[in-house]
Amino acid sequence: MLNNSNGIPKRYVWTSGIIFVLLMVMVKGNVSIIQTLDNFLGSLLGNGHNAIMSLISTIADTKIGFIYAIIIAVVLWFRQQRVDSVWVLATMFGGSVIAFIVKEIVQRHRPYPVVDTGFSFPSGHTFEAFLILSFIYLYFIRPLSSASTKRFALYALVVWQLLVMWSRVYLGAHYLSDTIGALTLAVVWLWVAMWLYKRLYEMVANIVNPAVGKHQKLH
Question: How far is CA 158 from the centre of its chain?
Fold first, then answer.
């Protein structure tokens, strides 16, 4: 249940929002310093074809991301967390639409167009990975009673997020700023989605199942 969640601290949301806007403006404006930093940092992270990096990127594919979201939503639905089930799907779909719109506005070309299609900023893999990992944390890790297990699992999620970002740069599908922009945009969108959850909870609960909705609200 997200009703008993403290949400994302606003300082992180504001920081993420500012970073995202700055990156978006610089990328859209073709500011030379961002391209120079991307090229330099990209060379440090490596570039080429690697089986492990390709596997990570495939697991985090945007199309597969929707399958993960559907699986999580189904589990929540049968756990009688039906408002949360709807929220997961709405957050995933709405976020993907927002990321797509940003891509179309910025229209940044990829480092190596042969690697992937579409525009480069922000990274869809990074964006969706953050949302899926957030769902996993909120519904399956946060409720754990063991603090040490919870901490280890959280570290594992963070490592996976970083690996996804690294793989996209390594494979030449994105610049580093594409992945950072996607991460910061995802933080802001998740905060907005959680805010909407609390504002629209009663309405959605009355639609999906009034009895279950009241039960969830009490817990």
Answer: 12
